[in-house]
Write a structure and sequence with these properties.
The structure is a homodimer. Chain A is mainly alpha-helical and about 300 residues long. Chain A contains 13 helices and no strands. At the A-B interface, helix 6, helix 7, helix 8, helix 9 and helix 10 of A face helix 7, helix 8, helix 9, helix 10 and helix 11 of B. Chain A binds a DNA duplex (30 and 30 nucleotides) through loops.
DNA sequence: AACACACGGTTTACGGAATAAACAGTCTTA
DNA sequence: TAAGACTGTTTATTCCGTAAACCGTGTGTT
C-alpha cells in the first residue's frame, strides 16, 4: 500500500513503453533490446514464430542463449516486443483521408498488410486488449475515424473490433494458404485446384447437398476476395445502424421483406440506377487492372534499381 | 495404382473420414484412435493445447509415448482428429428454424459455444479449408441456410466465412479473457477493472485523444457484447446486398492488390493507382446507394398504385 | 589509489518435447 | 507348425526454456 503507484505493470509492458531504466555501472553493453527484437523478428519473418528460440536469436547476434536474459525477462516479453515492432503504427493517411468508412477500410488494409508481412503475429495468443503504444495507436485511429458519427463510445469500440477482427480473420486464412504454398512449394492456384479435387472426392451430394452444389458451381475455384466482401457488408451494416436512428434509440429488428423483383425491374428510374451501378463496376474493374499493372511495374522498377536480392 | 481411388489423401484426413484400413493379423489392439483422441481432448480441455504431448496422452492411457504412433502417424494428425472431435456437427435446429438470418445466427451461436467449450481449437493453425466431415457439415448447414436467396455460391461461401470468422474472432478474444481469469484467478469484472486502470495510467490525452476519451466515457468497463453487434451489422449488410440487386448481377469483390513488399507501397505511380481504385470503390458504393433508393421508391410507387399487396 | 560490487556474458544442468530406429513378444494365416 | 505381420517398448538424438553458479570488467565510493 505504500508505494504502489502502478499496480505492478507487467514487466513486458513496461519495456514496451520504454520505461526501462538502464543501469550505469558494469561493463559496456554490447547488445540492446532493440537489436534482440530486430533479430527475433527477422527469424520469425523467415521461418515462423516456432523458429524463434532464445538460442536462435542469440546465435544470430553471435552470443550465447543465456545472455539474452540480461535484457529480456522471459521469452514472453520478447514476443510482446516483437508483436509491438511488427504491428507498427497506422499511417498518417488513415487519419486524414475521406469519411469514416474510407478510413476504416484503409485501417483494415494496412492492418492486413502487416499481418501478411509478419504472419507469425497471428500465432501470438491474445489475452485482453494489448496495452502497448502501437496497438493503442491503432485503436485511437479507428476511434478518431468514427468521431463524427453519433455512435456511443462503446459502439465505436465495437465497430473497431469488427474491423480488426476482419483483418485478423483474413490474415489468418491468407497466411495459412501462404504457409502451405511455401511448405508444399505450390502456387495458390495449384492449392485451390487440389483442394477442389479433394472436396470432389470426399463431399457426396447426399450427405452434403448444398456444399456439393457449391463445389459443382466452382465456388472453390473462385479467387475473389471474400474478406473485403465481409468488411464491406459489415460497414454497410454499420452505416445502416448509424442512419437508422439519429438519436439514441436503436433497436430495430427490421424484418426483411423480399421485394417482388419483377415489378421493380422495369421501373425507369431503377433501370437507370442499375446501369449506373454497372458502369461503376466496370470503372472499378478497370481501376483494379491499372493498379495491378502499376504494382507490377513498380516491382520491376525496384528490381532493376538494385539487382542484388 | 490398383485401389488408389484418391492420390494420397493426407493421412490424417483419411483417418478423419474413417477410411483407415484396420489390420487383422497380429495381437489384439489394446488402444484405439478414438480413445487416444478422447484422452487428448480431455487434456486439452483441462490444460490447453500446449499440455497435449504424446507423452502426456500416453500416460493418461497407461501406455508409453511411442506406442501412440502405431495409431496416429504424427502429432499433427492427432491434432486434426481432436479438432474434428471438438468441432462437432451443427445441431438439427440450425437446419430448420426461421429464415436465413436466424439460421446463420444460430450457427454462429453454436460455433462460438464450441469454441468456448474447447478454446484450444482456436490455437490450431489453419491451413486451407479443413476437409473433414464435421467442418463440411458446418459449411453445408450455412449454405443451406442461404439456399433460398439469390446469392451466387461464391457469395454464399463468403457469407458463411463471415459468420465463421466472427465466431472465431469472438472465441479468440473471449477465450483469451477466460484464460487470464483462470491463470490469474480473477473474475471477469476484476480483469476489466484492472485493464481499465492500466489504460488510465498509460494512455495520455495528448498522445491518444480519442482513445483517452473512450476510456473516460467508461467504454472499457461496458460489458455489452461487441461480437453479436458485429454479426448483426454484417448480416444486415448481407441483407442490404441481397435486396440491392434483384437480378443475379452484382459487385464482384476482386482482390485488391496487396503489395508484397513495403517498397512498392510508396511508389508514386502505384499510390496514384491505388487512390484511383479507392475513388472507384467510393463511386460504386454511391451508385449502389442510389440504386437502393431507386428500388425503394419504385416499390413505394407500385404499392401506391395497387394498394393490395 | 584501492576496493567492493553491480553488471554483462558464459557455462553447466535440468526437465521435457517429438520422433527415428531397433527390439521383443503375440496372434493370424498359409 | 512355421512364417511373418502386427503389437507395444526401449533407447537415443536433438532441441527447447531457463535456473543457478560462475568469472571478468568497469564504475562509484572510500
Amino acid at each position: 500500500m505504500t508505494e504502489a503507484v502502478e499496480p505492478e505493470l507487467p514487466r513486458g509492458i513496461a519495456l514496451a513503453w520504454g520505461v526501462a531504466a538502464n543501469p550505469q555501472r558494469g561493463p559496456k553493453r554490447e547488445m540492446s533490446v532493440e537489436r534482440i527484437v530486430e533479430a527475433a523478428v527477422e527469424i520469425a519473418d523467415a521461418e515462423g514464430l516456432g523458429a524463434v528460440s532464445m538460442a536462435a536469436v542469440a546465435a544470430r547476434l553471435g552470443f550465447t542463449p543465456m545472455s539474452l536474459y540480461r535484457y529480456v525477462n522471459a521469452k514472453e516479453d520478447l514476443i510482446l516486443l516483437m508483436q509491438e515492432e511488427a504491428t507498427g503504427a497506422p499511417s498518417e493517411a488513415t487519419r486524414t483521408a475521406g469519411g469514416w468508412r474510407e478510413r476504416l477500410e484503409a485501417l483494415y488494409r494496412e492492418q492486413l498488410q502487416h499481418y501478411l508481412a509478419h504472419p507469425w503475429v497471428l500465432d501470438i495468443p491474445i489475452s485482453g486488449v494489448p496495452a502497448t503504444p502501437n496497438s493503442a495507436a491503432w485503436m485511437d485511429a479507428g476511434l478518431s475515424a468514427l468521431a463524427d458519427t453519433d455512435l456511443s463510445y462503446t459502439e465505436r469500440l465495437a465497430v473497431m473490433l469488427l474491423v480488426t477482427g476482419t483483418a485478423h480473420w483474413a490474415g489468418t486464412i491468407l497466411a495459412g494458404y501462404a504457409r502451405v504454398e511455401r511448405e508444399r512449394g505450390l502456387d495458390g492456384d495449384a492449392i485451390s485446384r487440389s483442394e477442389d479435387a479433394m472436396f470432389r472426392t470426399l463431399i457426396t451430394a447426399d450427405a452434403y447437398p448444398d456444399l456439393r452444389a457449391a463445389i459443382e458451381a466452382g465456388a472453390f475455384l473462385d479467387d475473389s476476395d471474400p474478406f473485403s466482401f465481409a468488411l464491406a457488408r459489415g460497414l454497410e451494416g454499420v452505416s445502416d445502424y448509424i442512419s437508422a436512428t439519429p438519436d439514441g434509440h436503436r433497436e430495430k429488428p427490421q424484418s426483411w421483406v423480399v421485394p417482388d423483383d419483377a415489378d421493380i425491374a422495369d421501373d425507369k428510374k431503377f433501370r437507370e440506377a442499375r446501369k449506373a451501378v454497372r458502369d461503376a463496376e466496370k470503372a472499378l474493374r478497370d481501376a483494379h487492372k491499372l493498379e495491378r499493372q502499376a504494382a507490377r511495374e513498380a516491382r520491376e522498377r525496384r528490381a532493376r534499381q538494385r539487382p542484388e536480392a
